[in-house]
Amino acid sequence: MRPETRSKFHAELDNLEAEVVQLGAQGEVAVRQSVDALVRRDRELAGQVIDGDDALDERYLDIERRILDLFALQTPVASDLRLVSAIMHINLHLERVGDQAVNVAKIALATFDLPTSSVILSHIAEMGDVVCRMLHTAIEAFERRDLELCLKLPAMDDPVDRLNRGMYTEVVKLASDERKLEWGIRMNVVARALERVGDNAVDIGEQVGFLLTGEFREFTDASHDTA
Amino acid sequence: MNAVEVSGLNAWFGDHHVLKDVHMEAQSETVTAMIGPSGCGKSTLIRCLNRMHEEVRGARVTGKVLFNGTDVYAPDTDPVEVRRRIGMVFQRPNPFPTMSVMENAVAGLKLGSRLSKSELRQRGERALRRAGLWEEVKDRLDQPGGRLSGGQQQRLCVARALAVEPEVLLMDEPASALDPSSTLRIEELVEELKDSVTVIIVTHNMQQAARIADWTMFMLNGEVVEADSTEKIFTTPADQRTEDYVTGRFG
Prior knowledge:
Strand content of chain B: 25-35%
Oligomer: heterodimer
Low-confidence stretches of chain B: none
Shape of chain B: globular
Strand content of chain A: under 5%
Mean pLDDT of chain B: 93
Number of helices of chain B: 11
Largest sheet of chain A: none
Strand order of the largest sheet of chain B: 6-7-8-3-9-10
Number of strands of chain B: 10
Largest interface: A-B, 17 and 18 residues
Structural class of chain A: mainly alpha
Distance between the termini of chain A: 51 Å
Radius of gyration of chain A: 19 Å
Number of helices of chain A: 7
Helix content of chain B: 25-40%
Helix content of chain A: over 70%
């Protein structure tokens, strides 16, 4: 056998993989900080999340541009093609994760003067904790090419979905106090944002599954209730 | 249905064992591409299909090649008839340089068939049309074939091969000596031809195989490593050696 003939291409592919893994870490930190800012009423931290999104977007755009270059100039095939495609999708999911963190941080800033409910706050803290672990797991499965690990994501997502669905009932309990209710309605939106982050983590897991098996498969299907 | 079926094929140049127990199939009216590094035996394999390999001094073949059910190497099979039914186009365009365009197109028909002048001309026109060359040469059919551009000369060779109505067309790197636009013309032509001819093409250009072939075979050191749909070979090949070759991890 003769030596590697596309070392420049494969080096760039390695770099892009490292970049998207770092983007994953950035997204995870942004979500964790946004939830912390909301629960601890930390204005400064909320501001940091919002300001930090530019750096996240910049990295997302840079990865996107470099992927297009690889398609145009290097014509990836086989496992390289699957890796480029997976990076492209994971990149987009992580950019959305960053946007959800900004949404949570903005709501945190907008609701600091309103009265809260400790039950709802604990639910949101729990959701934030779980979706951050999901993001971590998804990226770790990608880095380690671990199919078994990414298949754990749908089960991890179950409590997130359950807490999100239960949020409505908790908010309704605040109906007697107008200001509490206003806060509660905003928190319903936060729960929805975190639920989306969980879905993005599952979607990243699906990309890892595709990378490893070559088969497109949805882990969960929103249109068919499998519960 | 398979137009070509090869089993247990071995080929040698003197002591050099070039093909080792090769099995392959080519379905009728499809395009099959053979890819693999230089010296892997691709060209030898297609030369075994129409008994061209044995023309080289010291060359030897064992095994079976069935062509639409006919045993190509049976003692009573006429190699000339085999080569009429299995046409071939080579890497470098090789029209007869002093013969006119039309004479080139019908050169194969003149051997052994007694067609009238007008019949010959009709068959020549049909072959030139099928090769996508007619519109470019219809006003200079009497000019020497050697005056055409490289890409046109190669399509003239395709026309010459098609004129005798072969069932299979073997192409040994037919575009490797052509410029990019002539290459694309040849690729388009292959797509059109597969409606009526089975095409087996050897190519060094993997993207060309990906663009035009229905089936792709990867060969290495005289063996067929993997043969599957082109889509499978270029997205999820089964064998690590195929994966390493198509992704350029070895050349």
